[in-house]
C-alpha cells in the first residue's frame, strides 16, 4: 500500500511543483485513492486552466475574447472589450491589490462587459463556428483526462467566470462535452428575436465562485454522494470553487501559476495544495488518477 504518494509520483517531484504541506497532500491523495472513483468528482476552472495559459509565448484567447471574434460582433463591441480587458486584466492578475478592492473592480468589469453585449445578435451557431476556427489549445492531456473520467463515470464540473456559450463550444469542438461534464458559467440570455439581453442568472466573476450556490443546481444533485474533490484553477478565486460542495470530505486543490510568479507563489501556496509553475499540461492530475481509474 502506497503511503508516500508525493515521493512516489514523479510528476510531483519536478522543480516547478510547489507543495506547502506534503503530509497533507499525502493524506488527501490517500483518502481519494482509498475511497475510489465512485466517491470522486472533479471541479475545474476553464479559462487558462482547461485551456493553456500560453503557447509559444503567446497568451491564449479567453472565452469572452473568442466571442468578440465572432463576425457579427460590431466593431464598437470589439473596441470596448479590448479597452476593458486592457484596463482590468492587469488588475485581475496583480497580487498587490486588496481582495475587496479587486472584487469591486472585477464586478465593474463583468457588468460593463454584460452591458456592452446587450442588443447584439450573435447566434450559438456562430459562437461554435468561431470557437472551432479559433479554438485555443487545451492543456496537454486534457482530452485523455476527460475521456478517462467519462469511462469511470466521474462527474466534471467546469466552473467558469468566462462566457459559458464559448466554453461549451470549445469543449464540443474537442469532443469532450461528454455526458459526465456539466458547465456552470455566464450563459447568454436571448429574447425571442435572438437579441442578447445579458447573462442568464447571477453573474459569476473570478472572485465570487466560492459564494455561488451549487446547491439546487443539476450538478449538485449529481454529486450528492461524492465526497472527494480534485479542484483545478489558475486564479486565487478558483480555490473556493468547491466551497458549495457542503458534504465534501477530501478536497485536493491544484493551482496553475503563470503570472507574477515571485509575488503570487506564497499566495497560491496558501490557497492550493499543489502549485504548478508554468505547467501547460494535465500530467499531475492524470498521474494521481492512475491510482484509482
Ligand atoms: N478577453 C476578455 N477576457 C475576460 C473578459 N471578462 C473576463 N475575462 C477573463 O475570463 C476569465 C474568467 O474565466 P475562468 O474560466 O477562468 O473563470 C478571467 O480570468 C478573465 O481574465 C472580457 O471581457 N474579455
Ligand atoms: Mg481561469
Helices and strands in order, then pairings?
Elements: H1 5-8, E1 17-18, H2 22-35, E2 40-44, E3 54-55, E4 58-59, H3 63-67, H4 75-92, H5 99-117, H6 124-134, H7 142-151, E5 156-163, H8 164-173, E6 181-186, E7 188-190, E8 196-199, H9 218-222, E9 228-233, E10 250-257, H10 261-271, E11 274-277, H11 283-289
Parallel strand pairs: 2-5, 2-9, 5-6, 9-10, 10-11
Antiparallel strand pairs: 1-11, 3-4, 7-8
Helix pairs in contact: 4-5, 6-8
The protein binds ligand LQESDW3C and magnesium ion.
Compact summary:
This protein is an alpha/beta fold.
The chain-level structural class is alpha/beta
- Our estimate of the beta-strand percent is 15-25%
Order of H and E elements: HEHEEEHHHHHEHEEEHEEHEH
Report mean pLDDT, rounded to a whole number.
Answer: 95
> Looking at the structure, what is the overall shape?
globular
Individual helix count: 11
Pfam families: UMPH-1
Enzyme class: hydrolase
Subcellular location: Cytoplasm
GO molecular function, one term: magnesium ion binding
Amino acid at each position: 500500500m502506497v503511503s508516500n504518494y508525493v515521493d512516489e509520483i514523479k510528476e510531483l517531484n519536478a522543480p516547478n511543483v510547489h507543495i506547502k504541506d506534503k503530509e497533507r497532500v499525502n493524506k488527501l491523495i490517500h483518502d481519494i485513492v482509498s475511497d475510489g472513483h465512485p466517491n470522486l468528482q472533479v471541479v475545474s476552472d476553464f479559462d487558462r486552466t482547461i485551456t493553456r495559459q500560453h503557447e509559444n509565448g503567446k497568451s491564449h484567447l479567453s472565452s469572452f475574447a473568442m466571442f468578440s471574434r465572432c463576425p457579427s460582433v460590431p466593431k464598437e463591441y470589439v473596441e470596448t472589450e479590448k479597452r476593458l480587458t486592457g484596463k482590468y486584466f492587469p488588475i485581475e492578475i496583480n497580487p498587490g491589490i486588496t481582495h475587496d478592492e479587486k472584487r469591486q473592480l472585477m464586478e465593474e468589469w463583468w457588468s460593463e462587459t454584460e452591458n456592452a453585449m446587450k442588443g447584439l445578435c450573435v447566434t450559438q451557431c456562430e459562437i461554435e463556428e468561431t470557437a472551432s476556427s479559433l479554438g485555443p489549445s487545451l492543456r496537454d492531456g486534457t482530452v485523455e483526462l476527460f475521456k478517462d473520467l467519462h469511462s469511470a463515470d466521474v462527474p466534471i464540473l467546469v466552473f467558469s467566470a468566462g462566457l459559458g456559450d464559448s466554453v461549451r463550444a470549445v469543449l464540443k469542438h474537442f469532443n469532450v462535452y461528454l455526458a459526465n461534464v456539466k458547465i456552470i458559467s455566464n450563459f447568454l440570455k436571448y429574447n425571442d428575436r435572438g437579441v442578447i439581453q445579458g447573462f442568464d442568472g447571477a453573474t459569476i466573476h473570478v472572485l465570487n465562485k466560492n459564494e455561488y450556490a451549487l446547491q439546487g443546481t443539476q450538478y449538485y444533485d449529481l454529486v450528492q454522494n461524492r465526497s472527494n474533490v480534485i479542484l483545478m484553477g489558475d486564479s486565487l478565486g478558483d480555490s473556493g470553487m468547491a466551497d458549495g460542495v457542503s458534504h465534501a470530505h477530501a478536497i485536493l486543490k491544484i493551482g496553475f501559476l503563470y503570472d507574477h510568479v515571485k509575488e503570487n507563489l506564497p499566495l497560491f501556496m496558501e490557497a492550493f495544495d499543489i502549485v504548478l509553475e508554468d505547467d501547460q499540461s494535465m500530467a499531475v492530475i492524470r498521474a494521481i488518477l492512475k491510482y484509482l481509474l
